[in-house]
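Deliverable D4.2, example record:
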Amino acid sequence: MTYTTLDETQIKELFKQALEELLQERKDLLYDLVAEVIEDFGLLRAIKEGEGTATVRRAEVFRILEGTP
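Output generated by the structure prediction step:
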């Protein structure tokens, strides 16, 4: 078996190439990751906004979500 020695620059370049290839072949992974981050930021913002508001009963929340009068 033959061994090859790589320096730090070569390792970084190989890693960059592998990551680029992965992202080109699996764009859905990047899309899912970005979508999840955006959702998390939206949820965090909603939680922070809600901290300063009055509390409501659970039943009231579900009534609104279900669209019942």
